[in-house]
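Today's session is about reading a structure prediction critically. Students often jump straight to the picture, but the first step is always the sequence itself: look for stretches that repeat, for charged clusters, for runs of hydrophobic residues. Only then move on to the predicted structure, which in these notes is written as discrete structure tokens rather than atom positions. Here is the chain we will use throughout the hour.
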Amino acid sequence: MEEITPGVWHWTARHPKIHLDVSSYFLPEHALLLDPLVPPEGIARLEELARPREILLTNRHHWRDCGKLIERFGCTVRAPRVGMHEFGEGQPVEPYDFGDSLVDGAVTVHEIGAICPDESALHIPPVSALAVADGVIHYGELVFVPDDLMDDPEDTKVALKEAYARLADELDFESLLTAHGAPLVRGARQALRDFALSR
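Below is the predicted structure for this chain, in token form.
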């Protein structure tokens, strides 16, 4: 685990289903986990920083290690309402809606859509960050996920770029917290705008 910017801790761990390393985040001041897997140092490492209370999923596919974290900490898990059909018995998840203010006003939910109806972005002004789900990933540069993960790649990319351009114009943030690939710690708003306007 590494504090990548004041108030935001990041780590990667191997996803048990897709067998790739993915990113998770913890904001101790808000007792908030984003799309979490248990850190490589172990679950107790989180409690050394602060006892987690809330878990936000940026889309329905990011349940990851929520079951373990609920069992240990009693966390409340929230995910987009339009993705609630994904969760079965033994996966207690409360819905949030686009436009909602969560975690005592620290987080605002924005709709991305396009790649799936529940694709969301979470704006977190107290740490000047935007957390994104699967529409954009960061491996050296901002890119789309592979075409075979999209139903209609060309239309999906156009719609994703429109959504990200809108957020880059409307929101103020310095860091982009990607669920796949490394976070972009500085200059993320301009980088997302440039990505959205690229051909």
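Discussion point for the tutorial: The longest helix spans residues 153-170.
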